[in-house]
Amino acid sequence: MTLQDNYLTIKGEKKHEVEQQDANYFLSERVHGSFTRTIELPMAVDAKKIEARFKDGVLHVTLPKTEDAKPKQDRSEGQLTANRLTRQGWARSQAQP
Q1: What is the pLDDT of residues 5-31, one digit of tens each?
Q2: CATH number, residue 27
Q3: Could you tell me the residue range of the domain that residue 63 belongs to?
Q4: Rounded CA separation 52/96 (Å)
Q5: Domain total of the chain
Q6: Is residue 26 within a helix (H) or strand (E), and if so which, with residue range?
């Protein structure tokens, strides 16, 4: 995994082998390949605090926001002054002209 500017790149490799044997035949299959995925992040993340774990075939990645990217509390009114965009809300905002 690499993070450059606001782009997270994940690289990996898949391997799978199957062998079946019977009195009349022997089957051996090998599937392999590499992949790369690059995701543009909607806000800045703290690269030093990124965590990743792989368990049961699932990659879990935690990307904590930088202090500048976190919403600020307006002390006089008690409301958030920064927009909080969910992943779905951010995607909708990008789709509109």
Answers
A1: 889 999 988 888 888 888 888 888 888
A2: 2.60.40
A3: 2-95
A4: 33
A5: 1
A6: strand 26-40
